[in-house]
Structure formats: structure tokens, C-alpha cells
Amino acid sequence: MSTGLIAAEPRSATDLRSIAGEIGFLPALLVLLVAGMSAVDPQFYGTVNILNILRNASLLAIVASGQALVIVAGGFDLSVGAVVALASVVTAKTMATTAAAFPGNTALIIASGVAAGLGCGILVGLVNGFCVAKLKVSGFVVTLGTMSATAGVGLMITSGIPVYGMPDNFVKGFGRAQAFGLPTAVHVAIAAILVMVFAQRRTLFGRYIYAIGGNVDAAVMSGVSIQRHIVGTYVVSSLLAALTGILLTAQVGSGQASFGGDRMMLQSIAAAVIGGVSPRGGVGRVEIVAISALFLTILGNALNLLHVDSRLQPIFLGVIMVAAVALDELSRRRKSGV
Amino acid sequence: MSDLELSVAAQETGREKLLPARWLWSAILPIAMVVLVLGFASFDRGVLSSANLLNVAQQTSYLALFAMAQTVVILTRGLDLALGPTVSMVSVGTALAMAGAAATGHDPSAVLLAGLAVGFSLGVACGLFNGVVIAMFKVNPFVATLGSYNVAIGVATTLSSGRPVQGVPTLFSQIFYGGSVFGIPAAIAVTVAVGIVLHLVLARTVFGRSLYIIGTNPRAAAVAGLPVKRILITTYVLCSALAALGAIMMTARTGSGEPNLGGALSLQAIAGAVIGGTSLAGGRGGVGTAVLGALFITILSNGMNLTRVDGYVQMVVLGAIVIIGVLLDRLRLERRL
User: Fold this and answer.
1) Which chain A residues have a beta carbon less than 8 Å from that of B144?
2) B153 in contact with A at a CB cutoff of 8 Å?
3) Which residues are B181's β-sheet partners?
4) What's the total number of domains in chain A?
5) Taking the CB of the first residue and of the last residue of chain A, which one, N or C, has fewer CB atoms within 10 A?
6) Is residue A180 part of a domain?
7) Which of A292, A325, A332 to mutate to test the interface with B (most CBs of B within 10 A)?
């Protein structure tokens, strides 16, 4: 719980061991995985594969960093997968409609689509946050409800059919484009994660979220406005999920209600938890969650390249997740025992 | 703090005045159900036909069984996200065992026993894994069961290669789906029997009462000398065993082992329990809340199906109902305490 507060203090060189303890075994595992795969299969470090990994990892990392923020504050956001789908559908639909009304006005078309997509995210986040913070309903149940409702709305809008009609500038010029040799999604992800890291470390919002997740009563006593900050975490989480939906839409070239879904939601929680975010709240850093998302993506990619049956793959994910949290708990107990 | 003030206020107003209000709160869900049924019936008379009512009762019995399983762990502030995949895994395992035993020429009763044994062992194994990870390693129930969720999905789809497992003997379906006790279909009879036994266990045994204590105040339970770890492990095993029972009955209904049988069941079962009034904060709920919630969800989706409400709209309605249900529960809690 106090880890978050310690992180804010200036570190001296003697703290190196505690830094290693904070980051944990994840980077080591990541290096091991990459080195092992490079030795086994040269296809692994081919440009196509690496770009593919980075693109998928970016999308997961953006959603997972929002999820991490909610978990740090002591909640869970089950609706992120559905928000990805809704944002995708709404963005595509808005662009298609605007394009029909104002043909040729590309800037307006793109701006309205992106605004509508992000708007959906903010709306769902506000509903989640309002129910959790003001009405004091369990975050798990609220987001379970909004998950079902949001997914339903996404399917209603499209009847389950992909939505086309987005301007080429958005798809070819943004979604499938590369800048400095990297897909645009990677740049967006890096920017989003940098902003989140800054928010977590250097803003009152970020610090207060650690305080709320660590000890709600203490935070109340210290005069932290709990409600506003909890609403904030859900809004940020949904906003980032919506951003992912828009990136995915731009990349694929159509809005689909099948994007995201339960899989994305479960993976984002897995990434956050494996990345050291404690489900007890109060502990967790976005940059490690991003590394964790990269790790999970590479793991899936490696299992594919090794021709491991895709049906067996969830077992790896499940075991790694439970092992990561169990190890975390064991080390916590050992520490408190000393 | 506000809870304390409210409780003081509640004592001052006196017990008699509270009784009607309390009665009204507990009657909200049944009243809503009657209104729903009458509302749907005004659109379509078929809703009230005896065939449809029997259908609703049968559908409810499966969901009620899963909601009961979920309630047992929710009472201890837990949760079983792996319930759905456990159902899939048990379904596939049972079907494979029976198909295998039948192919090697065992007699029908041995085939059935093999299926049941494998099905329940898989369920118990899953529950044991959840319980040990949660009780001994102190892993958050959400994360632990999310882990076993993935493992169970992997096992179910790998064993079945992702396809339905054929070769389930007809005798199995005849007993667990077609069979009846005193004219009551097997699924309903089993659920009623399990419900009565579970209710007695929760209300009358030391084990049952200790679930409520652990859910209300885990630290006090430990200080009072309850073997919390052992009880928690037993709880998760019980939950998964009930899920396995439901899986076996659903497998009898479909007549094949289905790797996707569990689908959205984890969350549906949680929704059922919660709508019925089981508190995710632990210590409140029981067989009654589980059955009530399951019945409500089934009536709602059955009525929407019969009145041809779009499937996507149904998702939105169900989501809204879950949130409203918990909101009402929250209000009720504030009034009472």
C-alpha cells in the first residue's frame, strides 16, 4: 500500500534493490522470452512479426493502463471490452453519416467521428463512475451491467454488420500508416502511456488515487474528495478503451461490434494484474502494466509461432496470472513477517 | 459512519413501524415478476400457457442451480468467474467418458457411472484449485477464478477439439432430462431437492452459519477460531460441484458434450444472485435470493423472446436490470440498517 507513496520520494542509489523488487521478475521474463524465441525461430524477429506484435501490444496496453487505474483505486472495469466495440461502431457510423451530409469535408468527417467515439467512452465512464461513487454500488456489478448494455447498444446500431464508409485519409492515412517506421497505434500508445505515467506520479489526481485505493478511510480523513476521483478513474478507463476502439477501426477500415469484447476485458485485467497492480488497490504502475501487455502479446505470438494449439493457450495465460499474484502475495507476507 | 446514524435512527422509530416497509422491500421482486408476467401476457396469451410456464420452470431450474452455486461463494465475499468454463469442461469430460466407456463395451449403468464420476471429479478439481489458491495463497477471488476460467476454457476446448462431443448414451438423457419424479421433470426435481438441502445446510449447520460470519467479518471469524481456510476451500469445492451437477443436467438436455455450454453463465449466475438480493459485500443472501433472481431473469428473457423483443435490446435491458437491482438493494440496506 505504501509503495505508491514511496515511489514519489527521490531515490538514492541504495534503493536499487527496492527498485528491482518493485519492477519484479517481469522484464527478466520478457527478455528471456524474446531471446529464447529469437534463437528458436528466425521468423520471430522478422519486421512483419515485430510490427504485428507492437501493434497488438499497443492496443492492449492502452486499455490495460486504464484498467490499471481503476484497479489501483480499488475497483474493476468489466465494461472496457464493450466500450471498444461501441466506440468503433459509433465512430464509423458517425463518419459515414457526416460523409453523406458533407461530402469532401474530410477534416470535419474525421473530427466528428473521433469526437463521437470518445464521447461514448466518456458517457459510459460517467455512468460507471456515478453509480460506483455516488450511489455506492459495487463496481463489479455496475460495470457488469454497463458491459451488457453497452455491447447491446453496439449491436443494435449495426445489427451485427460491419460499418463502412470512412474516409481514406482516416484508414490509409492514419490507421494503416507508419511514422518513423512504426505503426501509428504504437505512437498513440506511447503518448497515452506517458500521459498516464505523468498523471500517476506527478499529479494530485494520480497521488489521490493511490491514497483512495490504499486506505479509503485515511483518504477521507485527509480531505480527499473520494467521489470525484473515483468517477475520474472510470472515465479515464472508458476513454482509453474508446481510443483503442477508434485505433482498431482505423486499422481494420470498418466499425465492428465484435471488436474488444470479453476477451479484451479479461486480457486487460490479466495484463494489469501480471503487471503488479494489486487487486487490493493502492499499488501498481502504468509503465509496468504496459510491459506486461507487451509480454502477454509476445507470449501469444510465440505460442502461435511454436504451433502450440491455440486452444491450449488460455491455460498458459491462466496459470501465469494466478502464479504472478500468488508470488506477489507470498513476497508480501514474507516482507511483513520480517 | 452514516450507517451507524441510520441504525440508531431505525431503532428510535421502533420495530412496528418498520415492519410494513420491510415487508414491502422484500416483496418488490415478486411484485415486479407478477407485473412482468401480466404485462407480457397482455401482448401474448401464450406466456400464460401451461406449456410455456413449464418451460420457464425448467429453464429457471438450471440458472437457479448456478445462482445457488455462485451465492455460496458470494456469501464469503468471494466470486466464481470460472463457473461457466467449469460447466463447459464438465460437459465435455462427462460426454467423453461416457462415449469412451460405451465404445469399450461396458454395460449402460457402468457407462453412466463413469460419466458422472469424471464430471464431478473435474468439477471438484476446479473447485479445489480455486479454493486452495484463494484460501492458502490469499489471491483475490476475482483474479484466482479468472485464472481458472482461462484454464478451464483451455481444457474444455482442447479435450473436445472445439467440437461437440457425440456418443452420449440415450439412457443418460432419458434419466437426467426426460426423467421425472412424481410427474415433475428431472431438472426441476433435482433443483428443488438441492435447494432444500442447501437451504438447510446454510441455515442450520455450523458450516453454513460460518459462511455468513466469514462474509460479514472475516477477521472476527478467524479470531473466533473458525478454520477459515478449510471452510473457504470447502465452499469453492461445493460451488464447483453444484456447477458440475448443472453441467451434467444441461449435457443430458443437449445430448452432447458442448465446449461452449458455459458461455456467459458465470456472469448470468452472478447477475441472478445479485438481482435476487445477495450482497457482493458478503454475509447476505441464501437459496431464496438465488432462486428468486434466477426466476426473474428467466421470466424477463422468456417474455421478451415471446413478444419478439430484439436480442440486442434484451442485452441492454438485462444490463439495466442488473444495475437497478443492485441500486434497490443498496437503498434497502440503507433503510434497514
Assistant:
1) 322, 325
2) yes
3) B184
4) 1
5) C
6) yes
7) A325
Phi, psi dihedral angles at B180 (to 5 degrees): -150, 150
B155 vs A315: CB contact, 8 Å cut-off? Answer: yes
pLDDT of residue B82: 93
Locate B336 and state its grid cell: 434497514
- Nearest chain B Cα distance for residue A125, angstroms: 14
> Which residue, among B130, B115, B125, B122, has the nearest Cα to B90 in the 3D structure?
B122
By residue range, what is the domain housing residue A270?
3-11+24-337
pLDDT at B87 over 60: yes
Tens-place pLDDT, residues B197-239: 999 999 999 999 999 999 999 889 999 889 999 999 999 999 9
For residue B318, which residues of chain A lie inside 8 Å, CB to CB? 148-149, 152
A5: its cell numbers: 507513496
Domain presence at residue A16: no
Task: Looking at the complex, report in whole angstroms how far the Cα of residue A101 sits from the nearest Cα belonging to chain B.
Answer: 28
Q: Which of A280, A321, A331, A336 to probe the B interface (max B CBs under 10 A)? A: A321
The rounded distance, in Å, linking the Cα atoms of B131 and B237 is 7
Q: Is the pLDDT of residue B1 over 60?
A: no
C-alpha–C-alpha distance, residues B22 and A71, integer Å: 35
Give the relative orientation of helices B311-336 and A139-158 as an angle to the nearest 10 degrees. 160
pLDDT band at A213 (very low <50, low <70, confident <90, very high): confident
Q: Which of B37, B35, B50, B74 is nearest to B298 (CA)?
A: B37
Chain-centre distance for alpha carbon A98: 29
Q: How many angstroms separate the CA atoms of A74 and B318, rounded?
A: 25
> Hey, which CATH number is domain B21-336, 1.10.3470, 1.10.286, 1.10.760, 3.40.50?
1.10.3470
Comparing CB atoms, the residue among B149, B271, B316 nearest residue A152 is B316
CA distance B151 to B146: 9
Chain B residues near residue A149 by CB distance under 8 angstroms: 315-316, 318-320
Per the structure block, which three cell numbers stand in for A218?
485515511
Structure confidence by residue, pLDDT tens digits, B117-143: 999 999 999 999 999 999 998 888 988
Q: pLDDT tens digits, residue range A33-59?
A: 899 888 888 888 888 899 999 999 999
Q: Crossing angle of helices A106-129/A226-252, nearest 10°?
A: 140
In chain A, residues with a C-beta closer than 8 Å to the C-beta of B267 are 144, 148
Q: How far apart are CA B278 and CA B274, in angstroms?
A: 5
A167: domain CATH number?
Answer: 1.10.3470
A18 within domain boundaries: no
Residue A194 binned pLDDT confidence (cut-offs 50, 70, 90):
very high
Contact map slice: A 283-322 vs B, CB within 8 A: 309, 311-319, 321-322
In a domain, A300, yes or no: yes
